[in-house]
Amino acid sequence: MIIGIGVDLVDVARFAASMERTPGLRARLFTAAEQAEPVPSLAARFAAKEAVAKALGAPPGLSHQDAEVRRDPDGRPSLSVGGRAGEVAAALGVRTWHVSLSHDGGFALAYVIAEG
């Protein structure tokens, strides 16, 4: 059963400019494992984190660090959700996360499904 769906779109150039203007932003938004990714991939990961929040109904107290986008051995992205987002997901009955990422034409897109 689908518990929630979230989607987010990020302008990669605008995101890159924000990252340059605010040096601590990379560490605040991304886990240590994510931080080495290139900017277009970071923009897609940021979109995924926003999409996770939307799939959960945007409850208060979430952190961007609560969701981490990982790369499975076959190259597909997957989500690891913990912290406050993990608590909310567990309360809602989320057992599986599905994520799709894309970046092209100056935009990054993420689509997230929370399944119970």
UniProtKB/TrEMBL annotation:
Its cofactor is Mg(2+). InterPro entries: 4-PPantetheinyl_Trfase_dom (IPR008278), 4-PPantetheinyl_Trfase_dom_sf (IPR037143), ACPS (IPR002582), Ppantetheine-prot_Trfase_dom (IPR004568). It is found in: Cytoplasm. Residues 65-75 have a biased composition (Basic and acidic residues). One of its GO terms (molecular function) is magnesium ion binding. One of its GO terms (cellular component) is cytoplasm. It catalyses: apo-[ACP] + CoA = holo-[ACP] + adenosine 3',5'-bisphosphate + H(+). Its EC number is 2.7.8.7. GO terms for biological process: fatty acid biosynthetic process. It comes from the Bacteria. It is an enzyme of class 2 (transferase). Residues 4-110 form the 4'-phosphopantetheinyl transferase domain. Keywords: Cytoplasm, Fatty acid biosynthesis, Fatty acid metabolism, Lipid biosynthesis, Lipid metabolism, Magnesium, Metal-binding, Transferase. The keyword Cell membrane does not apply. Residues 57-82 are annotated as: Disordered. Mg(2+) binds at D8, E50. NCBIfam families: acpS, pantethn_trn, PRK00070.3-2. Belongs to the P-Pant transferase superfamily. AcpS family. Transfers the 4'-phosphopantetheine moiety from coenzyme A to a Ser of acyl-carrier-protein. This is Holo-[acyl-carrier-protein] synthase. It comes from Acrocarpospora phusangensis.
